[in-house]
Amino acid sequence: MQVVAAMELNPLLRSPRPLPSLNSGTEAADKKRVNAAFAAVAFAPGLALGSFLNVVAARVPLRRSIVRPPSACMACEREIKWYDNVPLLSYAVLRGRCRHCQARIPLVYPAVELVTALLLAGCVLAFGLSVEAAVAAFFCAALVAVSAIDLEHRIIPNRIVLPATVVVLVANTARDLSPEWALAALVGSGFLLAAALVYPAGMGMGDVKLALLMGAALGRTVSVALMVGMLAAMIPGIVLLARHGSKARKMGIPFGPFLAIGSVVALFWGHDILHAYLATLRN
Ligand SMILES: [Zn+2]
């Protein structure tokens, strides 16, 4: 109980969600079950959204329309019929190859569909059917598209990140009137800007702009996202260094996907991690 009292007194440690009262156990359990049911239902539209994000990731860097023309094979340019464009299933049925020319369909396509569906279900599970869940799902969709593009093209397109930042910032500020969202966007991108100036080979301005979106979406837990992202990015860095020695420095690793991983961790567990961290500082 002392811990709870300390958390309530300290605004930094205050949970944004009200602590459940002791006699609402069954109600909370019911709510969890309802959210789990909605999350399961959200999986199918999540797959469809993932399929759309594949189109976004393939076309936005080429500055082509994401509406027209219909999807075609990248190799033989034949139009992909609807029955060959069913998320996950078509990839499995076609064994990852074009029906006409047998060209390999990159594994990133079904991966994007699956990850998007899992993230969308996760947002509904964690935040229920709420505006918060909608903003979180939109944020996740932007992260998936940006990661897929950064992996393939080594760029983080302004045409996704900047409009998404505006949408998320307005939605979060309207939902929870506070300067936190705008402040976190500025502090998060300021931190990466400083890092980019100190160590220019490490990251680009695209990462700095992505941090704007992360701050607007995550608020104070953007700190968790940046820390987790930087730690995660060290793993392939160390592997490359071990394998290739000093040559590893020239092998650029895209930083965007790691910032996205950190963002997802922060979105779902950021407040818990921040509480745990601040509690250890106090002891
Ligand atoms: Zn083909």
How would you describe this structure in keywords?
single chain; 283 residues; mainly alpha; 2 domains; 10 helices; globular; disordered N terminus; binds zinc ion
Description:
With 283 residues, this protein is an all-alpha fold. The protein has two domains: 28-129, no CATH class; 130-283, no CATH class. The protein is 68% helix and 0% strand. Helix 2 runs parallel beside helix 5 and helix 6 runs parallel beside helix 8 (205-218). Zinc ion is lined by residues 73, 75-76, 78, 98, 100-101, 103.
The helix tally amounts to: 10
Q: Span between N and C termini?
A: 16 Å
Instruction: Give the total of domains.
Output: 2
Mean pLDDT: 88
Largest sheet: none
Q: Which kinds of small molecule does this entry bind, naming each only once?
A: zinc ion
Element order: H for helix, E for strand: HHHHHHHHHH
Q: List unreliable stretches of 5+ residues.
A: 1-15
Q: Assign a percent range to the helix content.
A: 55-70%
Secondary structure: elements and pairs:
Elements: H1 2-9, H2 25-59, H3 89-93, H4 108-127, H5 131-153, H6 158-175, H7 180-198, H8 205-218, H9 222-244, H10 256-282
Please summarize what this structure is.
This protein is mostly helical. The chain has helices spanning 2-9, 25-59, 89-93, 108-127, 131-153, 158-175, 180-198, 205-218, 222-244, 256-282.
